[in-house]
Structures are given as structure tokens and as C-alpha cells.
Design a protein that fits this description.
The complex is a heterodimer of chains A (about 120) and B (about 110). Chain A has about 120 residues and is an all-beta fold. Chain A contains no helices and eleven strands. In chain A, strands 2, 4, 5, 6, 9, 10 and 11 form a seven-stranded mixed beta sheet that branches. Chain A is globular. Chain A starts with a strand and ends with a strand. Chain B has about 110 residues and is mostly beta strands. The chains are: A mainly beta (about 120), B mainly beta (about 110). Chains A and B meet through strand 5 and strand 9 of A and strand 6 and strand 11 of B.
Chain lengths: ~120, ~110
């Protein structure tokens, strides 16, 4: 099956610094990538959807200047948490999807997640 | 807007007992439905999916789910629980457009006891 990787798996940073999280589709081209945030013991909340080569679409309530998303290639998307604060501490999960030719259904694959802790 | 409701945030079963995790969806048309499992500090793993083919869907690790349009349900079952099944389970819904987004339920934590 298709594999999605995330790096780093865990990061601790000081308040006010910026953190970049990478999401890669290892064996397929991802036309669309998604970024989710998950608080402890809660469900996944979609933050934004990005299509390769275009600006990300953010969900309501998500600060686009705070969470910068870049989808520069069909295999890489990055999420940068700018000027991080303790309330940004969370588990961030990316997901990637491709659209096979002639298919009406396209699978979405999830990365292993990145645990961000802001001190 | 689509949504899924998972009844029971926490379910506890004995090893060897039947597992039943409930999921009801809200959608104007039959959607795609999914069950995912999440182990601590890990991402999501797809257990099974319904994409308008057979209503009884078999997944990995002995799990299966049945799509019941009349009840707008997609409950997850496993005949005999194993200790390794202890995890968080999420039901998710998506409409059938290729650009559509997944909406997750609130999750059910499955505990398996000896």
C-alpha cells in the first residue's frame, strides 16, 4: 500500500520559535494533501487542504498566517507553525490522496503524525 | 453537511468477546464510509471502507462492518476481541466527489480485558 511519512515524529521548541513539519508521499504522487490537528483524547480536526502548486484552503477558524502550508511538489507538503505558543502543542497528522485515472474513488493515506510540544 | 456520530466514547470488552462499535452517519446521499484505528502516538490505519459496493465490508484484523441505509449506520464488529485490538477507533464519512473531505467521528476507545 501507499506510504506517507512525516518528519520529525516529535519536536520540542521554545515559545516564539517556528517549527516546520514535512509530509511526504513515498511511492505515489499526491495531488491533494491534508493537515489535521488532534488534541489529547479527541478526534482529528481538518486544518487545511492543499493541492500541488496552489494555495492551501484553510478551514474556518484556522489562522493561515499562523499555520503556513506549502505543497511545492506532488510528493511533499510542509506545515510551518510560526511563532509557536504552548497552546499550539498538539499532534499534527498529514494525509495524502491521489486521483487514479478513470477511478471514481481515491484512497487517502495518513502519515504517522508529529507530536509538537511548545515550552 | 455530513457528520458521523459514534455512540460510546469508551467501550470495554473481555478478551474473546464480541466487539461492537457503533457509527451513524448523516448524509443526503449514500456516502463513502470508513473505519480507522489509531494506536497511541501513531497515525491512522484504515481498517475497512464502504464505497457503494457490497454492504458487508470485511477489513483487516478480523473486523467487518455493515452498511445499513435504512438505519444510516455503519457499525464495526469483530467476533472475538484480542488484547491487541485495544486502541482508538474512528468512523469517518466522505461524500463521493473526488475532491471531498473526510469528516471524523469523536472516536471510541476500545479496552480489552482479560
Amino acid at each position: 500500500g501507499a506510504v506517507v511519512s512525516q518528519h520529525p515524529s516529535r519536536v520540542i521548541c521554545k515559545s516564539g520559535t517556528s517549527v516546520k513539519i514535512e509530509c511526504r508521499s513515498l511511492d505515489f504522487q499526491a495531488t491533494t494533501m491534508f493537515w489535521y490537528r488532534q488534541f489529547p483524547k479527541q478526534s482529528l480536526m481538518l486544518m487545511a487542504t492543499s493541492n500541488e502548486g496552489s494555495k492551501a484552503t484553510y478551514e474556518q477558524g484556522v489562522e493561515k498566517d499562523k499555520f503556513l502550508i506549502n505543497h511545492a511538489s506532488l510528493t511533499l507538503s510542509t506545515l510551518t507553525v510560526t511563532s509557536a505558543h504552548p497552546e499550539d502543542s498538539s499532534f499534527y497528522i498529514c494525509s495524502a490522496r491521489s486521483i487514479p485515472r478513470g477511478a471514481s474513488y481515491n484512497e487517502q493515506f495518513f502519515g504517522p503524525g508529529t507530536r509538537l510540544t511548545v515550552l | 453537511a455530513q457528520s458521523v456520530t459514534q455512540l460510546g466514547s469508551h467501550v470495554s470488552v473481555s478478551e474473546g468477546a464480541l466487539v461492537l462499535l457503533r457509527c451513524n452517519y448523516s448524509s443526503s446521499v449514500p456516502p463513502y464510509l470508513f473505519w480507522y484505528v489509531q494506536y497511541p502516538n501513531q497515525g491512522l490505519q484504515l481498517l475497512l471502507k464502504y464505497t457503494s459496493a457490497a454492504t458487508l465490508v470485511k477489513g483487516i484484523n478480523g473486523f467487518e462492518a455493515e452498511f445499513k441505509k435504512s438505519e444510516t449506520s455503519f457499525h464495526l464488529t469483530k467476533p472475538s476481541a484480542h488484547m491487541s485490538d485495544a486502541a482508538e477507533y474512528f468512523c469517518a464519512v466522505r461524500d463521493t466527489g473526488t475532491a471531498s473531505k473526510l469528516t471524523f467521528g469523536t472516536g471510541t476507545r476500545l479496552q480489552v480485558t482479560l
